[in-house]
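Continuing the series of single-chain predictions for the mutant panel. This is the parent chain; the variants come on the following pages.
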Amino acid sequence: MPVEPARRRTRLVSSAAVVVVVLVLALTGCTAGRGSTGGSATSGAGTVATGSSTQTVSVDGRQRTFRLYLPPSLTLTRRVPVVLMLHGGFGSAEQAESSYGWDAAADSGHFVVVYPDGLNRAWNVEGGCCGQPGRRGVDDVGFVRHVVGLVSRELPIDPARVFATGISNGGMFAYRLACDTTLFAAIGPDSATLLGSCPSPAPLSVIHIHGTADQNIPYDGGQGNGFATIDGPAVRAVVASWRAVDDCPAPEVSTSGMVTRSVAGCPDGRSVELITIAGAGHQWPGAAPKPLVQKLLGTDPPSTALDATTTIWLFFATHPKPGG
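Parent structure:
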């Protein structure tokens, strides 16, 4: 890809601070999942509980977990889409499920949501970032491949409608998945950037949301502030590189209030879209404010200028793989 390799530095927080984050998230109820509704749905591979459930898998010699949300009203007589929601640094599958509104979107949009857990609450996105997975070179891409394969055996997942979204470290991991796999029809990073090499990615649709006042992962690139100090390329350059991958024309730009959209319609029905929110920080737009949790996770108050979950899902719903 035409983005030059970026310098990366990570500043690690003390183990005591990590423990405080985990304990406070638990005490605030942020990591309390919805739990199974008690019903079940039958697919070709067996019975899967409706509502939220947790599964444990062994990947690369490690026990890994993920949460799966199956809407109780979802009909499994035909193939259905799946969205992977990737938590940010210091987050978790349960925290992401409770914070960003994807279960409600799945209820109305008739799709499945998977919330993988990063090892020690982080994802390896290359170049030593982030946290323990980055330092140890954990194969998180292999973990996600395994999870998608497992869920596709349990449920009739449409291979043309597999999507990934995420915030911060999770958004960076969505880019890593786009670089290193051909699983996804589209990705939707928020408050993220692309780190590491991405020499020959497969074409796919991209919607990227970013606040212009993000101090953790600056919109204009360079070194940010936060628990992990990210030094990456400008967001505009990252998005432009995906337009090049998809052979897109120049984007059309429009502004409404605080929101600016740069949209490129590309061959084979793909699209690359950048949405910026003037003055917004490092956050998931439209999420419910949780000041204590935001402080501990290193995020800012959510912007009310946009509902990121609805916006990203509408993009996903209209951008399957070509022919899907």
